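W.,

You were right to be curious about this one. When I first looked at the sequence I had no strong expectations either way, so I just let the prediction run and decided to look at it fresh. Below is the sequence, 342 residues in total, followed by the output.
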Amino acid sequence: MASKLLQCATVTLATLSGFNQTTCYRKPDDPAKPHILFVHGFPSSSYDWRHQVEFFADDGYGIIAPDLLGYGDTDKPDGPDSYTLKKVSEGVNEIVSHVVGNDTKVVGVGHDWGAIVLSRLANYHPERFLSYSFVTVAYYPPGPSESDAKDAPRTAPRTPLGYQKFFNETDSGRIVDGHKDSFVDLLYPQNLTKTWTDHMRPANATRAWLTADTRGPRAGYITAEEFETHMSIFAKDGYTPALNYYRAQIRGLNAADERRIGLAARRTDLPVLYIGARSDPLVDVTGENEAIRAFASGATLEGLDSGHWTQLERAAEVNALLKKFLEGGGRGVARARRQRRG
């Protein structure tokens, strides 16, 4: 359903993993402009890129906006083993190859877990991309490599926050899906800074919010109709499948794959943009900037006075920053494309 709500065709592919992967796809109206791959986060779908899809499609760009595994019209297997970052990123790469071919390079844009999936696409398939743009959540470095090179860019292991620990618990799916309205009020609150600081960061706080069926005012930058659409997308299968991204990460299921990512694949010389959200209480923009610089020393760093859902809350500003970057601002993609043609 999610991809059908955007101004593009819906394409479904049976991937090598055995799961059906669905994407919104639209060819560029302007043949001089590339395809943009929009990768959504948790708990979202391709529908969360609606403002960007409309803007860039109207501007002549090609659009690829998949529903990740566990979301929207893509399959939703049980258990965290299917949700390792390598498996998910391979599924995305397969659907991209299916719609544009193996040799066509695309522009990557990711938000939240989509930024993490884009990070692994950059590690595993750098030949696919013209550039990378990360929104709210920056490039996410893989774990230690087998070579354990002293100069390998890395960060200290991140301690899971309270809500992340809750998502890893066996009964979290039942609780979330039993209190969907309360969950949406928590995710998209009117006062995100206070609500997330009080009810998502501390241990057991998210469980307490949901089991009490707490309600609160929702953010004004999402309309009532858009909230209804979000709820309808998750009505059938709920949020439980998507929790497996957290479970796979917290339980160490990505570690073996990431040990095989070499040093060269942990850096890039492609153009990179990071749009930080200064009012997201759970994301340290300073730390995110450091991760971006370790990945791409010449990255373009921008920041907006926004909460976590930057592409929704500050849609026009995000679109403007992406457009400037793509069309040559800083180390933009237009310049990279000219260099690769020359």
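Here's what jumped out at me. The first strand starts at residue 9 and ends at 14. And, maybe more interesting for your project: Confidence is low (pLDDT under 50) at residues 149-156.

Coffee later to discuss?

I.
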